[in-house]
Design brief:
This protein is of the alpha/beta class and 466 residues long. Helix content is 32%, strand content 23%. The strands form three sheets. Strands 1, 2, 3, 4, 5, 16, 17 and 18 form an eight-stranded mixed β-sheet that branches. An eight-stranded parallel β-sheet has the order 6-9-10-11-12-13-14-15. Strand 1 and strand 2 form a beta hairpin. The structure holds N-(aminocarbonyl)-beta-alanine (URP) and zinc ion (ZN) (3 copies). The site of one zinc ion has 2 residues, from loops.
């Protein structure tokens, strides 16, 4: 039996258009859009959702999360269940999380471990990228198999020596492989070997507070690594996607490469757009709440990030959601900033913060949807199914109230973490209802979804536009 849901009266916003339209959903997919008030539809619908005065937007696609990530002797505090529920509360209906290859083990073993963590626990759909910690002949062959199965993107690191770090030869080999199998290489670009020297020197000088995390992880060392991975990708004839870009000097490297016509892409995150080294310098160890890598930068860098998002030198805003509680987790680094687990919570906040950026004049409404829904879907082989509202697409739809006011706070958020990086921040705009494949997950500010509704997404290869 066909189930039909009709969303009436809203302003439908996609990356391409803004139109007042009714949206018809049949069996979990968008069936059609039509002029508001189309009579024969409302008569035959099983359920009508009134979106008058609201936006009707595609569910957010967050292509950078770390649920339950093991890091620095502890684990990111959101499970796939708590993290995907929080994502839904924030208007995100797809995440792509990072499965981790443990050094010395196969990609398959890492992937199986991540399937086990996520399976049956997610409230929204999810896919995986694979972190390559160990590039060798065997793992390069495994890459081909994973691409065929729909795991089509791989993250490598020039940072974290001894943990996730790959040397330039390993990065080049992975890029060459991606160039032949259609995979996308994602790069964490910071010169980790140089940073480790600066960390050691800072600690010897007694510089142990969280703010030194930002000082040793220099913008120049982000720019250098960004430049290097772009050149390695050029040599390999492969596209490259640089994750969590924070330094204006790194944006300049991406812009220059793109001006040369290279398939080079960049992602930034809300924390780099809204927070700064001022937060890292908060007294009484509060700065630890803002320790992530790449680090927060001085406020001056924000203008370059917003400009990059407008000029398309940066294409995606994801969260790099990697929460650690202040009590008991961030506190592991009291007296030594290098022991603070790296990462910030944010999966619930992204759509709202970017809507505020629309109101603040940084980006247009359609660009909001483009950088948060459409392009991330396209970049990682999900477009058509995710990231837009068009016939045939999955009915992942958010009814968004652009006028509702909210104050972000750990008291009211749904992420499993004891602080908010945006505590007390006032924003205008709030999710009202969320559908995932036609099923209500949030119904007028009430969670009605369930762990286990979310399905694993086998993805195609990247559908990037130059
Ligand atoms: O600080 C961060 N970003 N933690 C998560 C791991 C990573 O490098 O993305
Ligand atoms: Zn209007
Ligand atoms: Zn990273
Ligand atoms: Zn990350």
């Amino acid at each position: 039996m066909t189930t039909r849901t009709l969303i009436t009266g809203g302003l439908v916003i996609t990356a391409a258009d803004e139109t007042h339209a009714d949206v018809l959903i049949e069996d979990g997919r968008i069936a059609a859009l039509a002029a508001p008030g189309t009579q024969e539809w409302s008569a035959s619908a099983d359920r009508v959702l009134d979106a008058t005065g609201k936006y009707v937007i595609p569910g957010g696609v967050d292509v950078h999360t770390h649920m339950e990530l093991p890091f620095g002797g502890t684990f990111a505090s959101d499970t796939f269940e708590t993290g995907t529920k929080a994502a839904a509360w924030g208007g995100t209906t797809t995440i792509v999380d990072f499965a981790v290859q443990t050094k010395g083990q196969s990609l398959r073993a890492g992937l199986d471990a991540w399937y086990a963590k996520a399976d049956g626990n997610c409230a929204i759909d999810y896919g995986f990228h694979m972190i390559l910690s160990d590039v060798n002949d065997r793992t390069l062959k495994e890459m081909d198999l994973l691409v065929e199965e729909g795991l089509t993107s791989f993250k490598l690191f020039t940072a974290y020596p001894g943990v996730f770090f790959s040397d330039d030869g390993q990065i080049l080999r992975a890029m060459q492989r991606a160039s032949s199998n259609g995979g996308m290489i994602m790069m964490h670009a910071e010169n980790g070997l140089a940073i480790d020297v600066l960390v050691e020197q800072a600690l010897q000088r007694g510089e142990t507070d969280p703010r030194y995390h930002g000082e040793v992880r220099k913008a120049l060392l982000e720019a250098e690594a960004t430049h290097r991975v772009i050149k390695l990708a050029q040599v390999a004839g492969a596209p490259v996607y640089v994750v969590h870009v924070s330094a204006q000097e790194a944006v300049a490297e991406l812009a220059r490469a793109r001006d040369e016509g290279l398939p080079v892409f960049g992602e930034t995150c809300p924390q780099y757009l809204f927070l700064s080294t001022d937060n890292l310098a908060e007294p009484d160890f509060e700065g630890a709440k803002y320790v992530c890598s790449t680090p927060l930068r001085p406020r001056e860098h924000q203008a370059a990030l917003w400009r990059g998002l407008r000029t398309n030198d940066l294409q995606v805003v994801s969260t790099d959601h990697c929460p650690f509680c202040f009590v008991g987790q961030k506190e592991l680094g009291r007296g030594d900033f290098s022991k603070i687990p790296n990462g910030l919570p944010g999966v619930e906040n992204r759509m709202d913060l970017l809507h505020q950026a629309v109101l603040d004049g940084h980006i247009s409404r359609r660009r909001w949807i483009e950088i948060a829904c459409a392009t991330p879907a396209r970049m990682f082989g999900l477009y058509g199914k995710k990231g837009t509202i068009a016939p045939g697409a999955d009915a992942d739809v958010v009814i968004y109230d652009p006028a509702a006011e909210q104050v972000m706070s750990a008291e009211t958020h749904h992420m499993n973490v004891d602080y908010s990086a945006y505590e007390g921040k006032r924003v205008t705009g709030r999710v009202e209802s969320v559908l995932s494949r036609g099923e209500l997950v949030i119904d007028q500010r009430e969670f009605v979804g369930r762990a286990g509704h979310g399905a694993y997404l086998a993805r195609g290869t990247s559908q990037y536009l130059g």
